[in-house]
Structure formats: structure tokens, C-alpha cells
TrEMBL record:
Signal peptide extent: none
Ranges that cross the membrane: 12-33, 45-66, 104-123
Family: Belongs to the 4-toluene sulfonate uptake permease (TSUP) (TC 2.A.102) family.
GO CC entries: plasma membrane
InterPro entries in UniProt: TM_pro_TauE-like, TSUP/Inactive_protease-like
PANTHER family membership: MEMBRANE TRANSPORTER PROTEIN MJ0441-RELATED (PTHR43701), MEMBRANE TRANSPORTER PROTEIN YJNA-RELATED (PTHR43701:SF2)
Statement: the UniProt record of this protein carries the keyword Cell membrane: yes
Organism this protein belongs to: Thermorudis peleae
Designated name of the protein: Probable membrane transporter protein
Bilayer topology term: Multi-pass membrane protein
Record's keyword terms, sorted: Cell membrane, Membrane, Transmembrane, Transmembrane helix
Subcellular location: Cell membrane; Membrane
Amino acid sequence: VPQRVGLGATLSAVAGVLSGLLGVGGGFIQVPLMNVLMRVPVKAAAATSAFMIGVTVVSSTLLYYANGLVNPQVAVPAAFGVFLGSQTGSRLARRVRGRVLSRILIVILLYLATTILLQAFGIQVPGAR
């Protein structure tokens, strides 16, 4: 049973703002938020996050498209790749233990946080813009 639902909803709203503002899915915020603060198992948090990202993406995409900000030459191939990748990822998630998924998420978050921090101080990171 999820805990601290009110806090989770409030922080999810903040994650939604960041997702819309930055054009990111928000899963890197939502999954740890649900897992740590709301005590949702990591696999359920990932699945719930994927559902919420779908809702966020639909609303943001409509607004971006209406404002002429979507480049179909980039969006169509990217959407195809994301569709295939998400199908593969959700199938793999069924076979991987929750603890392993948590560790993978930790490594990714540490890498992203380190990259952003280094860039904020003007340090060039190979492979990052």
C-alpha cells in the first residue's frame, strides 16, 4: 500500500512541470520518488511511472505540436525507436529482480547528476553537450 500519497502527488506535480519544461519523461524523478518516499516496490514504481509519462507526453506533445515546435523528421524515427525500446525494457523488467533494477537506476542517476554538476561548473564531459 503506497504511503504519503499527498506528498507523492505534490512532488509528482513538480516532476510534471519539470517534464514539460525540459522535455524529459520524468521517470528519473518519479521512480525514486515512489520507491523511496511512497514505499512502492521498484517494479511497480517503474510501471506506474511509464503510465504517468504516457499521460504527460500526450498533453505536452499536443501543446508543442500546436505551437509548431515538433520536427516530424526527428519525431517519427525517434518515436519508432522509443516504442521498440520500451517494449524490450518492459519485457526485460519481468525477468530482472527489483534489487537489480534499483541498482541500475542508482548508477544512471549518479551518472546524470555528475554530468550535470560538471557541466554547471563549465567542465566538458565527453559525449555530453
